[in-house]
Amino acid sequence: MIKYLQSSGVSRKELARYADLSLEDLAAAESRLSPSQLQRLWQLIQSRILPTLSFSVQVRPLIADQLARGRVRIEVVAAQLNMSRHTLYKKLKEENLTFAALLEDVRRERALTYLQDRSKPLVEIAEQLGFSELSAFSRAFKRWMGTSPAEYRAAAA
Q: Are 43 and 49 in contact (CB under 8 A)?
């Protein structure tokens, strides 16, 4: 989260102030931050950064959250943004995007991350990404990366 905030133009000093940390402590791993410090950083994201980001950048983490919980439903994402499904489609269209394209992009990013964990079976990764079967995941992955998930994982070794 810290790298994300810094890439969005928030200074290290400002991050430290919002997290109630020294600059040295801010340099420590994100996992060492307390829940209250992470909450303050999230409030910073919501109040200062999200309003300046493109709409699709705001939608991505909501899709990722739904994906982590199971099935992704556009109605749920739209409700989290306090808008109708139609308005969500319209705002994405303004950026020449579709909900399906964003979902596929988030799935691809997650797949690449999950494949780094060699102990995680491909079937489990397919399920976590919302695919009905391993074969559906394999076809999608081959479309994205030009190789099967197993071949990609083997080549990364």
A: no
